[in-house]
């Protein structure tokens, strides 16, 4: 289908076919925008010519340290220049980038080191002890540590490892890059938050990263030379691919290490930030900022928000401040946002709750997704466009992961029927826009972070006084949702809320620790299964 009768001599050649990769965006930017500011972090400012030279240094230095094509280089970094540089430098020498969540606990980091087989870790001084302890708990060979100190943030080098700048000094600014021979080659591996136990390694390819970055330019209505503020952690789905996207449009990447109101307002006012992404908690942070932290600015800032639908009250308060909010939805498995609530002119006259209700929907597929819909997982047929019939959100297209690393069974299960199954329940509105109705998995999304209720339950159940535990999401004005634990104690045993929270905190990362503990007999089915839907309803009233 679609072939001419005689296509002899019309094969792919080096002249007419080049594997897609976001690396090409930076090469072009260094040629077209050499003096344009590529990166800003406090007093640090680098042009595209300088940025490319540093990427070449990093790539060649990694090779000199023994990193080979296909090797995994991990990072444990906040949104600082080394993290942005690693997004290009690691794949530029054929490596695979693994950006690790800085908020994870030691055991999970150790598992990721082992599972991905990291050969080297670029680690911020703030998280060096976490990385070192994780390495001590590994089953396999520990990776090489390169310490990324940050004098601007008061994070001095420990002296225990080679520093990032020492590594860079050993590199060649003119070194050639290793280009992918196949666009299906892996560019990065990102670990989920372990919502069903151990985190899964989600593998991205160069083609998907390229098309995702290209498509989001359209979705965000970008023109040349935008100024993007890195509020979305660059360890989250590679910063939603936005770091790879900026060179495409000659944009400026403004690194924001501390996600607080003052540095965000300062960046908008002083650097002219035009775009940023973040969870609804970021919007609330700006709304509730102290008067002394707020700054005046005379332009509209475009915002992608995800993690949970932005509350109508938040949208009503943030937009008059100079922000235009677009709700997006996606998963690690879809390179971050892959669904957008595309605004239509017919909605321009909507105000208040009505406007917010339209904006809070998940929306329609972004340009790099071939199909994003809600289907009956049993029949694999699309549900009715009635806003009531529930089904599962599914994706098909170039913006879907290669699969789960070292887990072919889970990969095949997730791709059954030719679509990626998200596990999230939703309805289709009459206009075809998706609206999430519930989550099929017991995921708690707190400040944009996914939390496994199973993991939290397992920790609390380890307390000697606990008989049963069920953890659900409790609505929270600041974080969107927080873990709430319902606990049934053993006969004759006692425990306090404070005691159980402190017990959980010894094992869990802070954001995973329950913020509320309720003692009661848990509702169960006739087979003994805990009825979480009842607990969710109760949590809403606490």
Automatic annotation (TrEMBL):
Transmembrane segments: none annotated. The keyword Isomerase does not apply. Residues 455-529 form the AMP-binding enzyme C-terminal domain. Gene3D superfamilies: 3.30.300.30, N-terminal domain of ligase-like. Residues 28-405 form the AMP-dependent synthetase/ligase domain. Belongs to the ATP-dependent AMP-binding enzyme family. NCBIfam families: PRK08162.1. This is AMP-binding protein. It comes from Litorisediminicola beolgyonensis.
């Amino acid at each position: 289908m679609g072939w001419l009768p005689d296509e002899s001599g019309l094969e792919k050649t080096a002249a007419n076919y080049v594997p897609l990769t976001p690396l090409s965006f930076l090469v072009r930017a260094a040629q077209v925008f050499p003096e344009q500011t590529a990166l800003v972090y406090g007093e640090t400012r680098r042009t595209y010519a300088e940025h490319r030279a540093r990427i070449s240094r990093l790539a060649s230095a990694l090779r000199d340290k023994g990193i080979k094509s296909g090797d995994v280089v991990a990072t444990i970094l906040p949104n600082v220049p080394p993290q942005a540089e690693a997004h290009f430098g690691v794949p530029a020498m054929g490596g695979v980038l693994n950006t690790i969540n800085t908020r994870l606990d030691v055991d999970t980091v150790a598992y990721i080191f082992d599972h991905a087989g990291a050969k080297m870790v670029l680690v911020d001084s703030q998280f060096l002890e976490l990385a070192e302890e994780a390495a001590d708990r590994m089953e396999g060979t520990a990776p090489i540590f390169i310490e990324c100190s940050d004098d601007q943030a008061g994070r001095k080098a420990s002296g225990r490892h080679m520093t990032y700048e020492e590594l860079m000094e050993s590199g060649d600014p003119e070194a050639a890059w290793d280009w992918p021979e196949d666009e299906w080659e892996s560019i990065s591996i990102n670990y989920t938050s372990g919502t069903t136990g151990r985190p899964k390694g989600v593998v991205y390819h160069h083609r998907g990263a390229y098309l995702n970055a290209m498509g989001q330019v359209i979705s965000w209505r970008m023109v040349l030379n935008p100024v993007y503020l890195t509020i979305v952690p660059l360890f989250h789905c590679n910063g939603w691919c936005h770091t790879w996207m900026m060179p495409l449009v000659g944009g400026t990447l403004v690194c924001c290490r501390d996600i607080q109101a003052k540095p965000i307002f300062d960046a908008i006012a002083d650097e002219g930030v035009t775009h940023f992404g973040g969870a609804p908690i970021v919007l609330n942070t700006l709304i509730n900022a102290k008067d002394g932290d707020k700054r005046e600015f005379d332009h509209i800032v475009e915002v992608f928000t995800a993690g949970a639908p932005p509350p109508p009250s938040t949208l009503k308060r943030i937009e008059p401040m100079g922000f235009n909010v677009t709700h997006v939805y996606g998963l690690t498995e879809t390179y971050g946002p892959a669904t957008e609530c595309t605004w239509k002119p017919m909605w321009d006259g909507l105000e208040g709750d009505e406007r917010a209700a339209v904006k809070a929907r998940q929306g329609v597929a972004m340009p790099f997704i071939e199909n994003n819909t809600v289907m009956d997982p049993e029949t694999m047929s699309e549900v009715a466009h009635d806003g009531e019939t529930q089904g599962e959100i599914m994706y098909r297209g170039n913006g879907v992961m290669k699969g789960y690393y070292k887990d072919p069974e889970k990969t095949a299960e997730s791709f059954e029927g030719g679509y990626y199954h998200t596990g999230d329940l939703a309805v289709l509105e009459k206009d075809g826009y998706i609206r999430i109705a519930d989550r099929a998995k017991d995921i708690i999304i707190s400040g944009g972070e996914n939390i496994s209720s199973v993991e939290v339950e397992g920790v609390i159940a380890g307390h000697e006084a606990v008989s049963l535990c069920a953890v659900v999401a409790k609505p929270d004005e600041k974080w969107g949702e927080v873990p709430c634990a319902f606990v049934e104690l053993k006969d004759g045993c006692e425990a306090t809320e404070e005691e159980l929270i402190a017990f959980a905190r010894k094992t869990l990362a802070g954001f995973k620790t329950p913020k509320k503990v309720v003692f009661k007999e848990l509702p169960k089915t006739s087979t003994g299964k805990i009825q979480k839907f009842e607990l969710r309803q109760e949590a809403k009233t606490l």
